[in-house]
Amino acid sequence: MADEHRRAETIAAANGIGTDTAFGAVTPPLYLSTTYTFAEFEKARAYDYARLGNPTRDQLADTLAKLEGGARAVVVASGMAALDLALSSLRPGDLLVAPHDCYGGTHRLLSMRAERGHYRVAFVDQTDETALRAALAEGPRIVLTETPSNPLMRIVDIRRTTALAKAAGALSVVDNTFLSPALQQPIALGADLVVHSTTKFLNGHSDVIGGAVVAAEATLGDELAAWANTIGVTGSPFDAYLTLRGVRTLFPRVERQQRNAGAVAAFLAAHPAVARVYYPGLPDHPGHAIAKAQQRGFGAMLSAEIAGGREAVRRLVGALRVFTLAESLGGIESLIAHPVTMTHAAMDPQARERAGLGDGLVRLSVGLEAEDDLLADLGRALDAVARG
Ligand code: PLP
């Protein structure tokens, strides 16, 4: 069966399986060599030096490009490197429109690049079309979108935003980390580039830092691949091997994790110690209808406002036994984070306030544990918070 007719689940599970020509290994081998023999003088083979190209990394890139419906993927050392690479065409004076409530590390990267004069950045609430149109009227070169956003799960209409960006002559870059291609494919909705922290759902086992940029068009993908080699940010082969192993189970992991997340969201929404739950799967979430239209599921991430602020959060995380207090997300284990003191601590307090990140906010990445254990853990810990 030709690859283009294979379903995404089949690509994730089996792309590259059984292609080893040396020994017929079913699982594609891991090539760690940094350098490759020349066939003869002046005649390189398919690979010569591993910063530029590596068979294991290329196998991951090929799989990610197919899963996102893009022409080419570039696998790099981290999600931050992927974002920086995707924005590398910006010149001094160029304007970047970015989400006002993006991941804290993204906010820091863009702010520091702007501070150094590498480009200008306007942080905009992209769910507000008037604000978005006003920013687009300034003639940006790139519009960066993160949806669902980290950590408030705001949903941006990708089709609408990419169409408006295109009409304004801007390139659209979408960070798809929170959902993975199993649940959302931004290229089909008009994005020019998709960015991933493969550290999260794609690898899925909290043991690799990695990133990828997927380009809708080969020309832009080729340019980014060449620049990634020039600045030396391509990912390590061993990390690519582990990430591809994680991708094999992407669909069943995400399916099960989002089922757990739906149950956790409903449970939290009904608990008196919780003031508010942010999960796009809840019908009262402001982005529910758009999420339903552009996503294949509501994902395994959610956040919640704990009544009683920081002190209540301190008691909650101290009482939890199944959820672990840690940054990051998308792994098989359930994690809880306090954005103000952890993932978004790098954001200045005004920017945090503008993004709506309060002291009582916690972010949950829901894993593969039994639903009953997750709910019992939260119930016991929240009861302890309510008792004071
Ligand atoms: N994009 C999003 C949405 C993230 O949540 C993160 C990290 O949490 C990143 C990018 C950065 O990825 P990495 O930590 O792999 O550099």
From TrEMBL:
<keyword id="KW-0663">Pyridoxal phosphate</keyword>
<dbReference type="InterPro" id="IPR015421">
    <property type="entry name" value="PyrdxlP-dep_Trfase_major"/>
</dbReference>
<dbReference type="GO" id="GO:0019343">
    <property type="term" value="P:cysteine biosynthetic process via cystathionine"/>
</dbReference>
<dbReference type="Pfam" id="PF01053">
    <property type="entry name" value="Cys_Met_Meta_PP"/>
</dbReference>
<keyword id="KW-0808">Transferase</keyword>
<dbReference type="InterPro" id="IPR054542">
    <property type="entry name" value="Cys_met_metab_PP"/>
</dbReference>
<protein>
    <submittedName>
        <fullName>Cystathionine gamma-synthase</fullName>
        <ecNumber>2.5.1.48</ecNumber>
    </submittedName>
</protein>
<feature type="modified residue" description="N6-(pyridoxal phosphate)lysine">
    <location>
        <position position="200"/>
    </location>
</feature>
<dbReference type="GO" id="GO:0005737">
    <property type="term" value="C:cytoplasm"/>
</dbReference>
<dbReference type="InterPro" id="IPR015422">
    <property type="entry name" value="PyrdxlP-dep_Trfase_small"/>
</dbReference>
<dbReference type="GO" id="GO:0009086">
    <property type="term" value="P:methionine biosynthetic process"/>
</dbReference>
<dbReference type="InterPro" id="IPR011821">
    <property type="entry name" value="O_succ_thio_ly"/>
</dbReference>
<dbReference type="InterPro" id="IPR000277">
    <property type="entry name" value="Cys/Met-Metab_PyrdxlP-dep_enz"/>
</dbReference>
<dbReference type="GO" id="GO:0003962">
    <property type="term" value="F:cystathionine gamma-synthase activity"/>
</dbReference>
<dbReference type="GO" id="GO:0004123">
    <property type="term" value="F:cystathionine gamma-lyase activity"/>
</dbReference>
<dbReference type="GO" id="GO:0019346">
    <property type="term" value="P:transsulfuration"/>
</dbReference>
<dbReference type="GO" id="GO:0030170">
    <property type="term" value="F:pyridoxal phosphate binding"/>
</dbReference>
<comment type="similarity">
    <text>Belongs to the trans-sulfuration enzymes family.</text>
</comment>
<dbReference type="InterPro" id="IPR015424">
    <property type="entry name" value="PyrdxlP-dep_Trfase"/>
</dbReference>
